[in-house]
């Protein structure tokens, strides 16, 4: 048991301790657990301290690699998760996050998506825990789905077709997984979004399915009838800006339509049908023109 106590009291990076103030020096305070000493810099404590005073501190490495203390206790630990704001993005290295202490902590590019375009931006939030790298330096590690297991709150069926919001904590070609404000797991298939989603991005959408296990399928796209109106406006504006004519029609290939408008052929045909029904455009000679009433 004595060995276990020694291990608990060992001064290691990323751990919290109650240490005694031995003395004040020019740069701060020297703290001790009775065996080892660490420095508490002046900017790592909010108030003056007295000798023999016992304080709770968190241990981390300063820029020189020395083990030092801070009275700012992080909101995350090796076995506890929390949201941390991204404060800096360094291409090729990773992102730095604020975990509630004076020094920001790195989330390595090894723990971020391969595509940098879906890396978080400054201001995004990552759900992280503490870890250490191969050199023993303190880092933050994003939560994996496996860390949750099946321990997700079960969403009620009444959420179907309701608006919902949350933050992305996994992003891939297949889609993105978010944690909603209520803590539910939500999946957004790539076909239910207009663009790739960043890790840590805040998104707002609607529930399109409440699954039997209580997780959700979500969409960030407007309802089909709303999309048809938006797509129709896009097409009409395009024709107006191109002297009243467009080389595309309802027989154009999906590739041609995707290149011009970034929508599917079926969406294009629905929007074009709406414009023709409203007599805003007409087709002839394989092209689409503004109708005579619009010119």
Automatic annotation (TrEMBL):
Domain S1 motif stretches: 161-221
UniProt cross-references to Pfam families, sorted A to Z: CvfB_1st, CvfB_2nd, S1_2, WHD_CvfB
GO molecular function: nucleic acid binding
SMART domains: S1
Cited InterPro entries: CvfB_fam (IPR014464), CvfB_S1_2nd (IPR048588), CvfB_S1_3rd (IPR048587), CvfB_S1_st (IPR039566), CvfB_WH (IPR040764), NA-bd_OB-fold (IPR012340), S1_domain (IPR003029), WH-like_DNA-bd_sf (IPR036388)
Source organism superkingdom: Bacteria
Family to which the UniProt record says this protein belongs: Belongs to the CvfB family.
Protein name, as recorded: S1-like domain-containing RNA-binding protein
Gene source species: Aquibacillus salsiterrae
């Amino acid at each position: 048991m004595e060995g276990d106590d020694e291990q608990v009291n060992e001064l290691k990076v990323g751990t919290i301790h109650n240490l005694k103030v031995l003395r004040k020096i020019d740069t701060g305070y020297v703290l001790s657990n009775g065996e080892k000493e660490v420095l508490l810099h002046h900017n790592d404590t909010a108030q003056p301290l007295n000798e023999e005073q016992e304080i709770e501190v968190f241990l981390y490495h300063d820029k020189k690699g020395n083990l030092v203390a801070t009275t700012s206790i992080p909101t995350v630990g090796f076995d506890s998760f929390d949201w941390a704001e991204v404060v800096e993005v360094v291409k090729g290295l990773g992102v730095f996050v604020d975990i509630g202490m004076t020094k920001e902590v790195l989330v390595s590019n090894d723990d971020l998506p391969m595509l940098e375009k879906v890396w978080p931006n400054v201001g995004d939030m990552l759900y992280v825990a503490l870890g250490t790298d191969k050199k023993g330096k303190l880092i933050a590690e994003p939560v994996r789905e496996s860390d949750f297991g099946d321990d997700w709150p079960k969403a009620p069926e009444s959420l179907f077709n309701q608006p919902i919001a949350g933050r992305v904590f996994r992003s891939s070609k297949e889609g993105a997984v978010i944690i909603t404000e209520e803590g539910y797991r939500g999946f957004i298939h790539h076909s239910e979004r207009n663009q790739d989603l960043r890790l840590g991005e805040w998104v707002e959408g609607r529930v399109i399915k409440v699954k039997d296990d209580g997780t959700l399928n979500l969409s960030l796209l407007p309802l089909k009838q709303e999309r048809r109106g938006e797509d129709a406006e896009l097409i009409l504006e395009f024709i107006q800006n191109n002297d009243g004519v467009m080389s595309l029609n309802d027989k154009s290939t999906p590739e041609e339509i995707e290149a011009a408008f970034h929508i599917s052929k079926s969406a294009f045909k629905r929007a074009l049908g709406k414009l023709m029904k409203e007599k805003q455009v007409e087709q002839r000679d394989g092209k689409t023109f503004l109708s005579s009433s619009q010119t």
